[in-house]
Specification:
Layout lengths: L1 H18 L7 E7 L2 E3 L5 E6 L6 E2 L4 E5 L2 H26 L3 H33 L5 H29 L4 H26 L2 E3 L4 E6 L6 E2 L6 E4 L4 E8 L11 E5 L7 E8 L20 E8 L12 E6 L3
Antiparallel strand pairs: 1-10, 1-14, 2-9, 3-5, 3-8, 4-7, 5-6, 7-9, 10-13, 11-12, 11-14, 12-13
Length: about 325
């Protein structure tokens, strides 16, 4: 009987061990990199790409160029408008051109000669009228001709005076405002043109190229991604029953194949919501249980032998 009881006890112990396996002190995860996706702020066809996957770039290095034809046309038009407005303002500030002034001055001189002749004719007819040689009608006609010539001289002299003056203050103010707007349009066109040549926002390694020259890119369509230095992080999954062991700030020991000696990392975040299984199972056996994604950063940030996607194991360092 005792043998039967011992056999049943052993069987139930095996069943309990099967359904409640001993807790594995080692947790599993992978290395992830926070990459920068580089996309233009305008939608246009790619003309050239200056870098390839794996290339190291510095901040400000040119990465790729877009077709600039439309932007160059817009800049040329804006510059032409600025020159036209500037010329208009200069014309308002200086008055008429010397050539125009000389034409008006010549007209004034001719009108004065005509007026002087009309005055002489009028004076002669007046004397002849007194002596009875000329009629009153002739005198009246010469008087009218003289007054007309005098009025024409006055008109041309006024036109000459106006031509020598600059524009009214209100016109100059309006022209200055137009020039400021034209200059702003040129600046906008220059800024827009600069957007067609995209440089590296950060230093790092080109992780991946998504598009090739000839394809169209835009704000939501990155051309490539850059992995900055010190961007690697450890992502591993903590079972619910061990969640309290892995708090933000705790140091963990990380190991992986080909990484050399284990290294330390500091936990920077723990997910507040659980998930049933990690995206990729690295555990020794599949377990259907709740886990929490935890992120840690290597204390030694410059670790060139770590690669994104590399499987790792994590153990908590003694506190």
């Amino acid at each position: 009987m005792s043998d039967i009881i011992a056999a049943f006890a052993g069987f139930f112990a095996m069943v309990a061990a099967f359904f409640n396996p001993p807790m594995d002190p080692v947790l599993h995860g992978y290395i992830e990199a926070n990459v920068i996706y580089v996309a233009p702020v305008v939608t246009q066809r790619i003309v050239s790409i200056s870098v390839g996957e794996g290339d190291m770039v510095e901040e400000g290095d040119i990465l790729f160029n877009l077709d600039q034809a439309d932007a160059l046309s817009a800049l040329t038009a804006a510059q032409a408008e600025e020159r036209a407005v500037a010329a208009q303002l200069a014309n308002l500030q200086t008055g008429s051109r010397p050539e125009e002034l000389r034409v008006i001055e010549a007209n004034v001189a001719e009108a004065r000669i005509t007026r002087d002749k009309a005055k002489r004719d009028y004076d002669r007819t007046a004397r002849l009228t007194i002596s009875g040689v000329a009629s009153e009608t002739a005198l009246e006609n010469d008087k009218t001709a003289y007054e007309t010539a005098e009025a024409h001289v006055s008109q041309l002299e006024a036109e000459l005076a106006v031509a020598r003056l600059p524009a009214r203050a209100q016109q100059v103010v309006a022209a200055n405002a137009d020039l400021a707007a034209a200059k702003a349009a040129v600046e906008r066109a220059v800024i827009t043109l600069e957007k067609y040549s995209v440089d590296a926002p950060v230093a790092g390694r080109v992780e991946r190229r998504y598009l090739d020259p000839g394809e169209v890119s835009g704000p939501s369509k990155p051309v490539l991604s850059i992995q900055p230095p010190k961007s690697l992080e450890i992502r591993f999954f903590v079972p619910e029953e061990r969640r309290g062991e892995f708090n933000v700030g705790r140091i963990v020991r990380v190991d992986c194949d080909g990484c050399g000696a284990p290294f330390e990392a500091k936990i920077v975040s723990v997910a507040s919501e659980s998930e049933f299984t990690p995206p990729v199972i690295y555990s020794r056996e599949e377990r259907h249980r709740l886990v929490y994604m935890t992120k840690a950063i290597p204390l030694e940030r410059e670790m060139k032998n770590l690669l994104p996607g590399q499987p790792i194991t994590v153990e908590a360092e003694p506190q």
